[in-house]
Amino acid sequence: MTHSPPEPTSPDNRCQGCQQGQPLDFDFAFAYQPIVDLRDQSVFAHEALVRGINGEGAKTVLDRINDSNRYHFDQHCRTLAITHAAQLGIHSHLSINFMPNAVYRPELCIRSTLETARAQRFPLDRLIFETLESQHVDNYRHLTHILREYREFGFKTAIDDFGSGYSGLNLLADFQPDLIKLDMALIRDVDQDRVRQAIVRSLVTMCAELGVTVIAEGIESAGERDFLSDCGIFLMQGYWFAKPAFKALPEVPATAWKR
Question: What is this structure's pTM?
């Protein structure tokens, strides 16, 4: 059962960011990278990755974010990613990164996202909102509140770079997202590293018990792909399958699937 945000009929129904945030004075765009499903050689989702208007790296955009424009940047990221995805004809899930410290009241801050999804006819249950584990030790309760609210709206939730910070297991104890994305530092050369292999196997077992689906990101070799699939991880992302494509959907070569 999903619910809708309250209508903006009074000042109480406007969040702090709406009232105080500064508008953006720069533009940006997105590149899209597939998250593949090895079980049927399909694309499960595309992740929207922020880029400069001419394809410059994400840092050129993120370096311009500050406390005064963070709210409007986060809001524009959501609406622009959905709009461009609809224009590109994405029929998979769409994964969008969000900034918890730019969300004041999730039931209000989500309004423009819902309006854009409806206008673009993009199903809410195909939207994934992901956030980094490593950034939110200080915002732990606020983050779990946001994730619970987003689930109520019908979105899927994901924790990115799981294993890179210190709060992941604590977060998982209080809230079980739909997905976690294993940090690429755990994935790199995992087929040749018994310690990483033991950690990954343990995480897969734990997530299976909790009903959380595991995505492995940063796949760069056939050996990594094959070890992870043997562990029961079937959703993967990385250069082995496709690099992000600027304002486009990259193709996954047939050779990427073969053992």
Answer: 0.88
